[in-house]
Each structure stands twice: as C-alpha cells, then as structure tokens.
Amino acid sequence: MGGLRLPLEVLTSALELALDRAGLYPWAMASYALSAIGRDRPGIVAEVTGTLLRHGVNMADSQMAILGGHFAMMIVLVASTETDVEALRSDLEHSRAKLELEAISLSEIDEAQARIDEPSHVITLYGADHPGIVNAVASALAERGVNITDLDTHLVGEETEPTYMMILEVSVPEDLTGRGLETSLREVAREQKLELTVRLLDQVAL
After folding, report:
1. Shared domain check, 108 and 39
2. CATH number assigned to the domain comprising residue 87
3. Alpha helix locations (H) across the chain?
4. Which one of 28, 38, 156, 159 has the fewest CB atoms closer than 10 angstroms to its CB?
5. Are 57 and 140 part of one and the same domain?
6. Sign of dihedral through CA atoms 123, 36, 39, 41?
7. Is residue 53 part of a domain?
8. How many CB atoms are closer than 10 A to CB 131?
9. Which of 98, 102, 93, 95 is nearest to 69 (CA)?
10. pLDDT exceeds 70 at position 2
C-alpha cells in the first residue's frame, strides 16, 4: 500500500501558515508532507514525533484518525533547508518498521504549485446506505467545477438498517451561487434517495 495523499487544503493552508511565520526562524525553511498508515496501536504518535524532534523538524499542521482499526496521520512539517532529509527518511522508515506500519512517506511541498481553495459551503446528505453514493455526489460536484476540501462519511442508526451520512466542505467557483450548488445536487439526491442540505460555512474558531 502506498503512502496517504494529503488533502490539498491541508497542504496549502499549512504551507501558507508556515510561510507567514518565516520571520520567526533564523534559517531558510522548507515544507514537507508526511503521511503514515497502519494497524492502530499505542505509541504511534510518540514514536513518529520523537523522530521528527531528533531532526529538529517542526509540525505546522496535522490530522490524525482511526478508521476501521487503522490509524492514519497526515502532517505538514517545517524544516531548515540544512536538514538531512535522507537521514530523516531513513529514521522514519526505522520507526515504520518498529511500529509495523503499512506505509510512511515524506515529500517536499512545492510552494510554486500550491493552490489555496478556501471552503465556502457545507453539504450534508443522508439516507439508506447503498453503493454509489459518494461517486454520484462527487461526480456532480466535479461537473460544476466544485472542489471538495473536506469529506466525512459515517454509518449511523440500526445495524440492520444503517443510515449513510455524508458531510462535505466545498469551494465553489465564482460563477456558482449557493442556490446553484443546491440545484446541481437536487437531482443526484433524488436519484440516490438522499436528504440534502446546503449552507454557508460558518467560521469556526479553533
């Protein structure tokens, strides 16, 4: 299994934050994306972050979660351009083997290619679980040039009759209004027998 791919909004927002803080560091900086996945067990975060600390690498942003008994982490790192990246990769591989993770990867973030799409709307859909829901919704959004910046899905309710819930944060193109976005999804919701709501994204203070 290959390494996880960091969502674009995680990469770009953290990179922007890191660059804004460049004045806090007396050395030139580079940004990297680290991803890891494997069977959940205690000590994963401690081992990986310990390896980063030993190399003087700072965590700018991160997301970690357990899905189906697997632990996944995504971290945007800030390091000096003098950091020995190959040595860091080697030590991370040692950590992967020690933790028996399935994969771990480290790649540099190219500032020139970074693209920032700020989410503007939240879409919620729910209904009886069946194959094809995510594909139908994602395809409809792609046709209108809508970028998915965050996506969560959950099975809730009774085990014999589960309800599928899908929550998306999206960035819409300038020529598409919230009403237009909802109209674009109404047909999909009807075909998939889903309840649909679309609202502006509220600003949430962390």
Report:
1. yes
2. 3.30.70.260
3. 8-20, 44-54, 85-99, 133-143, 178-192
4. 159
5. no
6. negative
7. yes
8. 7
9. 102
10. no
